[in-house]
Amino acid sequence: MPKCIASSSLGAKPDTYLYKLAQAQGILATIGSDDSLRLFDASLNLLSRAPSCHLGVSCLDVLSHQTLITAGRDGAIRLWDTRAKPAAANLSEPNNRALSALACHGERYIAAGTDSAKEGLGDVSVLLFDVRNPAGPLRHYAESHTDAITQLAFHQLQPHVLLSGSTDGLVSLFDIEHADEEDALQQVLNPRSAVHCAGFLAPDQAYVFTTDEHFLIYSLTVNAEDTVDEKSVVADFGDVRKGLDCMYVIDLLRDPSSGQPLVACGHNEKRTLSLVQLAGPGPWAFGQRVELPAAHGDEVVRDLLLTADRRAYTCGEDGQVKVWQL
Description:
Layout: E1 3-8, E2 18-24, E3 27-32, E4 37-40, E5 46-50, E6 57-64, E7 67-72, E8 76-81, E9 87-92, E10 99-105, E11 109-114, E12 126-130, E13 139-141, E14 149-154, E15 161-166, E16 171-175, H1 181-184, E17 185-189, E18 195-202, E19 205-210, E20 214-219, E21 233-239, E22 248-254, E23 261-267, E24 272-279, E25 285-293, E26 301-307, E27 311-316, E28 321-325
Antiparallel strand pairs: 1-28, 2-3, 3-4, 4-5, 6-7, 7-8, 8-9, 10-11, 11-12, 12-13, 14-15, 15-16, 16-17, 18-19, 19-20, 20-21, 22-23, 23-24, 24-25, 26-27, 27-28
């Protein structure tokens, strides 16, 4: 059974939520509700802290083996070299709109999604930046979503394909080689509920978890002339809370050694955190599960990071980062 081998607040105050985890060049990082970016080592020793890294930090990702990237509701995107404390570079949403999602491809391209100000069509955008040209975005798609962008992901084999998910209940797939949005939009998936998380499950399939814990898998017809939704559903698991014995889903992860997809989910009342194998694809089904007992107590676990040394790092609304030996 997995064992918690370390736990730390990394100096955060007791009422701090820790949102997200990332790892670059062996250095781990987390962002929290106190708007700080914290870097720490595998033993949870705090290496550095960047207070007020954003006014409303919302996103954390990895751009390269030594560069982290953050975004916030201040409309800023910042690159951080893990070897130095100050931000290495800055990019900006042209209208300083709040940013709610990030994705990176290689060491060059950054996709960013905006939050909604409830101003109607054109209020929400999916943007593509080239870090070599920080003056402004290369692409600006503003007509495909009508509410906050919650998820962005680049296709693992076709990096010109970008997926976006939104609280408007739609998932869009863009070919970013096209500047014109009508030409760029290749496929639309409609899970009919706000998108919590989404991404590419296989080269020709995408997954979606909604905020009401429904789980769907879709086939992709990238470069198709017509958008597709219902006809492309490969599997509809419905509400997975009963089947997974959980109260909420965190995300779909990959086992670093095998590439096996794993669903991370939590149960506040039982104080458990689970990793459940997703076996397939013929057909897709839930398989073996591993329990992380006690988890973060009755607080929500916000993120889980798996590393190649068979460890799991978790963070949550209790303001703690924990290390688990799997």
